[in-house]
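Please go through the sequence and fold tokens given here and tell me how the chain folds. Record follows.
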Amino acid sequence: MTGNQRDPRFAGFFPREDDIPVPHRLGVPLVQRDYLCDGRLVAWPGPLQDVHSPVCIEAGVGPEPCLVGSYPLLTETEALEVLNAACRAYDNGRGLWPTLPIEERIRHVEHFALRMGEVRTEVVRLLMWEIGKTLPDAEKEFDRTVDYIRDTIDALKELDRVSSRFVIEMGVIAQVRRAPLGVALCMGPYNYPLNETFTTLIPALIMGNTVIFKPPKLGVLLHRPLLEAFRDAFPPGVVNTVYGEGQRVIAPLLASGRINVLAFIGSSRVADLLKHQHPKPHRLRSILGLEAKNAGIILPDADIKLAVRECVLGSLSYNGQRCTALKILFVHASIIEDFLDQFCAAVDTLPAGMPWEPGVQLTPLPESGKIDYLRGLVEDALSHGAHIVNGGGQSHASFMRPAVVHPVTPAMRLYRDEQFGPVVPVCPFDDIGEPMRYIAESEYGQQVSIFGTDPAALADLIDPLVNQVCRVNLNSQCQRGPDSLPFTGRKDSAEGTLSVSDALRAFSIRTLVAAKQNELNKGIIRAIVTERASAFLSTDFIL
């Protein structure tokens, strides 16, 4: 396994600048010198961080990373200014945004969604160049995010309809609704920098919280075309952005004790560091989507053709850079040879190239040092007796061909470490207790996929597995969607639950107004409701 750039299989892999189709060319680098604070795009005179694309340009002496642009490296001073703006806008729950009627907040979010659609082409192009996402997947991420906003609006309307009635229990009249929590800090992952950032940011906003969001370390610039839309669609201070090193801009926010909600999608190690920086962690609501090591279990009676198709998609979609990816495959020894023959053949024929090329499924990797990390995992496995059983494992600049590694055993790092890249460990088993024990002992508990055709055998596995992971997929890859279904995990894989409706609950708290049932209180409540004097105490029905 080498990174030999003279490998003839990589000849012409990266394009020359003139070879890039005009609609997909990057053009002039996007130099971002502003950030959103208190309803204004504030000019930043300080240092900038360059952003290089995983897509390299062939310049005659070898492939060179392409400069996408740059973004501000803010300091603690700017971070605290942003925090002050968010706190002023919330004003301990008395601000304009948290006290607006839900119908009014919905109108602001709808305005933003409309403006968002105007910059689709630019955001999709930046998704390709910043993180190497294929054109169809970049378009899908953008469109799915817009759909998520609309679905969130519909879910909130339904939630509010249910809450628009009074209940009378034991002589007490009450109305129960959901109220915001305060200032939310939202931080998304680089692999879905738009969609997964917005799956926390949008519900936080629409429930009445004010928001500070920090784009992920990769996929920063694609948010720049949206800043004017945020500025124009929401009142000052409701949406704010920070950029820069986490220790310089995020640590002061949490250490202030004024962040009420932490929404973070990334590693459990970083999540622990973030939570511990808050002086009153019991007051911090955390919604966390963390790492996983999802297993696929291929039983002896599995439909091998189906299992291969789903496992290839599950393990190598977006180069395996998904928390929901299948990151280890347990295959029954009686079918391992047949499975590997078909699986390796399918993997080795996956089209590789640049994100805009039609049909491409494998693209360059955006993380600096990622290929060295993956190579280290594979070399460790080889030193313990495993083999690369397909034609993969070679690398060239920022691209790596997928490596199928077999047989993987508990002695290898690849058995437990989350690779988050195009390496697929395969473990043969004779006794179903082996993969079941692996899942039970794993530090992670997000999902599992089971492939088989015997209903009784599948039922025997389902019952214990639902107590280990939060989604059991039958004859299909692990995945997040559809967004109406719960998305969470056990152990070190998640805290809190995300789905369209669950997210609304995650970013709010049940609050009620109650009064003893007597003529005085009934008259007061009747007057408030009739005169529409309160946004909370109301029987208005949103259509």
